[in-house]
């Protein structure tokens, strides 16, 4: 049995490198997912996830995260949580509960604090200053700044266990309580040991309309490769939604199947990171190509 891990955006490279070492040493894929995402959550250079994430319209950093176990199909999600260092760890803990697997706002915070998860002020001086400038600049406007690069991870271990996870602070200047795709099963992630794991990144308001992770998983179950499934699900959806509404935000997906084969699809210049037992952690660049296909090349980063 092989092992592998795939994650959204070049910001995940350091985390994937750490997670790959765990997988190579026989650690469970759930540990790898959590480790990779926590690395991004801790890094204030990445202003769409965790510490240093850009705040909502009221100046608060609201955090969403999800975790799914492909063996049991257990899910844990948090939404609009504040000042907890590692939302992914809370989501993973919730996946072990029989009930109350998806908590939001004060309920998510209460759970995290009762279970001893680290409390941390997630708004940095830099992001607070930036928020203040934006408030003054847009005092009479309600523009949403297009920042929505969640970190999403799919991991496979030597025992054939698949897990997915995601974490985000959402779009800058979002309304209080706004949710995107990241914590929503089927829309932001899906995982089944018998088939594959899939996670998304992009504009949640559009990704929620596609249910792409679940669709891609089913296409792989029907015999398509992960790349074929990503292409077949994503590009017709993008074109159809644009035809219906006249606009569409960023949409990107990553997938890995039970054999460690992977695929991606996107409508932007999309970086992602892959590591397997035969591939060192490598950053790739994906773009949409002709004929509803995807071009992929090493990013050279």
UniProtKB/TrEMBL annotation:
Species in which this protein is naturally found: Loigolactobacillus backii
The organism's place on the tree of life at top rank? Bacteria
Q: Name one GO molecular function term.
A: hydrolase activity, acting on carbon-nitrogen (but not peptide) bonds, in linear amides
Q: InterPro entries, per this entry?
A: Ntn_hydrolases_N, Peptidase_T2
List the protein's name. N(4)-(Beta-N-acetylglucosaminyl)-L-asparaginase
Q: Name one Pfam family in it.
A: Asparaginase_2
Gene Ontology CC annotations of this record: cytoplasm
């Amino acid at each position: 049995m092989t092992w592998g891990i795939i994650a959204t955006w070049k910001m995940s490279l350091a985390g994937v490198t750490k997670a790959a070492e765990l997988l190579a040493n026989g650690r469970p894929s759930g540990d790898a997912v959590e480790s990779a995402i926590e690395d991004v959550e801790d890094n204030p250079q990445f202003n769409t996830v965790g510490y240093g994430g850009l705040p909502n319209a009221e100046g608060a950093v609201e955090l969403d995260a999800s975790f799914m176990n492909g063996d049991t199909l257990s899910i844990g999600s948090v939404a609009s949580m504040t000042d907890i260092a590692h939302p992914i760890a809370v989501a993973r803990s919730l996946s072990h509960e029989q009930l109350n697997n998806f908590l939001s706002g004060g309920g998510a915070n209460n759970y995290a604090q009762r279970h001893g998860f680290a409390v941390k002020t997630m708004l940095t001086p830099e992001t607070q200053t930036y928020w203040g400038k934006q408030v003054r600049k847009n005092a009479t406007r309600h523009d949403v700044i297009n920042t929505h690069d969640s970190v999403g991870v799919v991991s496979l271990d030597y025992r054939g266990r698949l897990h997915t996870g995601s974490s985000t602070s959402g779009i800058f200047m979002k309304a209080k309580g706004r949710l995107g795709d990241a914590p929503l099963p089927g829309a932001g992630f899906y995982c089944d040991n018998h088939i594959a794991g899939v996670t998304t990144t992009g504009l949640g308001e559009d990704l929620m309309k596609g249910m792409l992770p679940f669709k891609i998983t089913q296409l792989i179950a029907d015999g398509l490769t992960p790349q074929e499934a990503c292409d077949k699900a994503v590009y017709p959806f993008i074109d159809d939604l644009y035809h219906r509404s006249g606009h569409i935000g960023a949409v990107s997906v990553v997938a890995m199947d039970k054999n460690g084969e992977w695929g991606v699809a996107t409508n932007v210049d999309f970086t992602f990171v892959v590591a397997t037992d035969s591939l060192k952690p490598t950053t790739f660049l994906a773009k949409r190509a002709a004929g509803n296909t995807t071009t992929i090349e090493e990013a050279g980063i």
